[in-house]
């Protein structure tokens, strides 16, 4: 009897359900748990540094000012990462305030790290643990509306990220993710062999997304509630691997496992890894 391989475990923002998202503590804990891939988001600072952050501003839900004060929701976008030098960004704390949606999260002091800090910390830990270096899924947080306000244009944004990936010798371990098709189109032109994942959160048909994109991506990353047997069939016909997000509850994890995805992105990699231990 042939056994299907268990999907890759992708730790979303490290392990957002357990540690402060997109921080060194979250990434190190995810690696200790045993994730196959670390998923993270990058934005650009005023001095062109590649910063790990989901929003291109300081989220009122999790960040505090350099003075240690909470950030009012209506003012969060004023703390625009793209308008701040990294030396200032580093003074904000984004780890002491537990995210209200994740009661199991363990708060601790944490700043928004540079991409290179994350890679260096994870590679050091992997060496200490006797493991092969972890792979990365890196999402560029780009929107047409944000050009020049919260981030550079797609070509410049991609240029800065690729410069960093090359400096870190990370291209061979990286998949680039984006909702913004312009970024993926630019990446396809520059590096045709680089794995690219189109992220999707709407109900537009796969065929329409592919027509807009203009090429067949390596991976498709839909919000997991969008999965249907018909979509799975279409993806297989196009030879596109599936990595849905963000699957957290055990019942949902089991449901998604039935679709035999390439990987699953989760805030709770410990839950998915527990299921893997039962199967393997």
Automatic annotation (TrEMBL):
Residue stretches making up the GP-PDE domain: 7-276
Pfam family, one: GDPD
InterPro entries: GP_PDE_dom (IPR030395), PLC-like_Pdiesterase_TIM-brl (IPR017946)
Membrane-crossing segments per the record: none
Cross-referenced Gene3D superfamilies: Phosphatidylinositol (PI) phosphodiesterase
Stored PANTHER family: GLYCEROPHOSPHODIESTER PHOSPHODIESTERASE (PTHR46211:SF14), GLYCEROPHOSPHORYL DIESTER PHOSPHODIESTERASE (PTHR46211)
Protein name, per record: Glycerophosphodiester phosphodiesterase
Source organism of this protein record: Hymenobacter sublimis
């Amino acid at each position: 009897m042939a056994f299907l391989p268990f999907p890759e475990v992708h730790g979303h923002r490290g392990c957002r359900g357990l540690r402060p998202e997109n921080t060194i503590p979250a990434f190190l804990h995810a690696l200790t748990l045993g994730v196959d891939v670390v998923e993270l988001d990058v934005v650009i600072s005023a001095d062109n540094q590649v910063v790990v952050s989901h929003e291109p501003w300081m989220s009122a839900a999790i960040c505090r000012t350099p003075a240690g004060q909470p950030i009012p929701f209506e003012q969060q976008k004023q703390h625009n990462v793209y308008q701040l030098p990294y030396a200032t960004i580093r003074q904000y704390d984004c780890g002491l305030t537990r995210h209200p949606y994740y009661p199991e999260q363990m708060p601790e002091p944490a700043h928004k790290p540079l991409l290179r800090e994350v890679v260096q910390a994870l590679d050091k830990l992997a060496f200490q643990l006797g493991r092969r270096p972890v792979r990365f899924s890196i999402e560029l947080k780009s929107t047409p509306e944000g050009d020049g306000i919260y981030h550079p244009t797609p070509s410049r944004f991609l240029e800065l990220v690729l410069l960093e990936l090359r400096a870190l010798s990370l291209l061979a371990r990286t998949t680039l993710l984006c909702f913004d098709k312009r970024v993926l189109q630019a990446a396809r032109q520059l590096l045709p062999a680089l794995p690219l994942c189109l992220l999707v959160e709407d109900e537009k048909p796969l065929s329409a997304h592919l027509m807009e994109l203009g090429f067949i991506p390596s991976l498709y990353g839909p919000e997991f509630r969008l999965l249907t047997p018909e979509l799975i069939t279409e993806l297989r016909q196009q030879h596109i691997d599936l990595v849905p997000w963000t699957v957290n509850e055990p019942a949902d994890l089991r449901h998604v496992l039935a679709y035999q995805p390439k990987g699953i992105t989760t805030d709770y990699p410990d839950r998915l890894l527990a299921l893997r231990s039962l199967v393997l």
